[in-house]
Amino acid sequence: MRARLILAFLLAPLGLAPPVQGEAAGPDGPSYAGLEICNDTAVPQSVSLAYRDDGRWMSHGWWALPPETCERVLDGPLKNRFYYFRSEAQNWQFLDERISFCTAPGEFTIYGDRDCAIRGYDSAFFAKIDTDVPAPPSSSGQPVVAYVARLSHHSRPKTGGAGPLSTVLSGAGATADSAFDQDVTFQGCEKRGDGRVICKLVMGAGQLCVTNDGMTDPAIIDRLQALDPGTPLRVSGKSLTSGDRVTFASLNALTKREETRHDLMLDDLAGQWVSQADAYDLFVIEGAARRNFYGSVETMTELLSVQTACDDATGAGPYLVAQAEDGGPTHCYRIISLTENELVLSYMPRGTELRYQRHDLPLN
Question: Where is the signal peptide (predicted)?
Fold first, then answer.
């Protein structure tokens, strides 16, 4: 994909407008004939894009953008208000907004934003482009026909070490064939159109996936399908393939276990929580899963556990550990306080305080 040079006056800022419900731009909002992404950083960047296409999520990449170049990533009238992008550069950090999509190492077009690792793809976090923010007119007085976003708002030099930044996790697992005996939290089973059943169990270091492929006794699969999300379990079996965060396994034993204080805290977190800083930023916790929304648009699903420690985070816990459902990146939050109506988290390692209010009402 070839980047082209563009005059500097077309580098319109990327920002956030007052949010509205839904994904489409309003009738009175600006109308743009295309979307351009400009690399106003000092290094070459690789860019991918994600958006809703005829009701389905689609991710596409990569475009190679040398410094001071732009790429028209979409032609024609923009149908959505929000688009999502990710940029990667060696020794640079991408400031994502925890919105997960599927990617691949080479050029790709992927439909669907779920089960990336299971389908053999990588998973990475993207940031939002809000096209409801009007782009400034050009210096010639002619209207700007394409919405222009620039990378510097979400990309900065990486500090504290060399090497390329990569938060994607490989979907290709290695054969493990090792026995385990593990405390887990049951999340749910999904029956696919081809009759395949995939059951997901959350553990501190990732997730176990069990399928009706003949490797596990069908009676165990039936027992899993009858469980409620969030049920604490003790399971034993053998891993079949294992990646960084997702392990496919066969089970030979399954028992319910007593709830720990961390299980009880996860139970107390159940419900809908709304950010006190942005009423459109909210999530719903059910069992061991967190569904994230911006307004009425669902952005991603994460699998949750409450742990004493989380990766390299320092300080006393407990920690809320959130991992993208498809096996993507893991994020750590220290639980500062939890009451009946308020949740206060500290996003690690930055220590950013996040306050939420319980608001158990149906989504629009």
Answer: 1-22
